[in-house]
Amino acid sequence: MLYQGLLRPLFFKLDCETAHHLAHLAGVLAGPVWPVLSGFFTYSGDDLKQNLAGVELANPVGLAAGFDKNGLLAPSLGSLGFGFAEIGSVTARASKGNPKPRCFRLPADEALINRMGLNGDGADVVAARLVRCRFSLPLGINIAKTNDPDIQGDAAVEDILYTYRQVRDLPVSFLTINTSCPNTTDGIMEETRELAIILHEIAKDSGRRLPVFVKLSPDSTPQLIEDIVACASETGVAGLICGNTTVSRAGLITDGAALSRIGNGGLSGRPLKPLALALVRAVFKLKTAEQVIVACGGISSGDDAYDFVRAGANAVQLYTGLVYQGPTLPRDINSQLSRLLKRDKITLQEAVGISA
Ligand SMILES: Cc1cc2nc3c(=O)[nH]c(=O)nc-3n(C[C@H](O)[C@H](O)[C@H](O)COP(=O)(O)O)c2cc1C
After folding, report:
1. Is pLDDT above 90 for 155?
2. Which of 23, 42, 310, 338 makes a 20 to 30 Å CA pair with 17?
3. Is 296 known to be catalytic?
4. Is residue 356 part of a domain?
5. pLDDT at residue 329 in the model
6. Quick check: CB of 89 below 6 Å from ligand 1?
7. What is the mean pLDDT of residues 88-93?
8. By CB neighbour count within 10 A (0-12 exposed, 13-18 middle, 19+ buried), where does 150 fall?
């Protein structure tokens, strides 16, 4: 209420990226206060706990990659009611990303379009920042190829493996390989050759400690999704994140002229939900029984989360919902999800894939 009535109108007077920086800065500066506030932002219940690919979660609602690209908020995120969080994408080299403006709100659709282009401090800086951090929730690191068209083929593989080696010993709980950013010069991955080499190299690493996840695109063809999941299964990947933003503009309320002014970018938020659900359903049919699915795309209520769990997701993540609903969203989703499970007299584990 406070957020939607007061803070959101103020934030929405600012451009999307400035508002994000302000919210992010407030989160960092309020670091010491977060634990005091955590009772307000948190919903806990034994029915929401689970072991996700070896990682103990207090609840299945996570923060998606992109919100805390450089790990600055990492120590405070547990007080915001999330069960886990993913920082990044982290790339081998620091990057300013694409020219601004590069993030736009579509209020009528409760959506965002962004073409940030993997801006970030780079792997060395983020690793140095996180090496001595204590986290109040399980944290994943999402890594991606540096956004540079000159890095291709073997150099692209080495670029990602460099970041892997920088982050693999950090005190984090999982690692995500992001193959699905539509906002770089490479776009989303179109074939699995390089991913296969990267995953085989990581599988061979005797120092490997972290469960590995792969983040997919809702825009991939059915054949590519099949190939990625097959490659992930062969190389012991623990989970699939379904998924990233879409380049589709289908079904939007926002008018075409406004969309043309905005231009390229990945669409997130409410209109993404049907595509993300279709991706979860497809991957649920292809994955091994041991692999888990983390759903992401347009989740902004307990009903949304329950739809994804019933389609095959073990846990969910969100980003754009926070922009429109505010910081009490994880708490609200968890309490609604708990109520829905009780209503249907079913456990979270039993609900996974029940409508698939
Ligand atoms: C501004 C912005 C930046 C993002 N940056 C990243 C990123 O660096 N790496 C990544 O894997 N996903 C990134 N994402 C995608 C989100 O993690 C998520 O997959 C997508 O937004 C769909 O979820 P949502 O509808 O809840 O926002 C970004 C999304 C937004 C809106």
Report:
1. yes
2. 42
3. no
4. no
5. 97
6. yes
7. 97
8. exposed
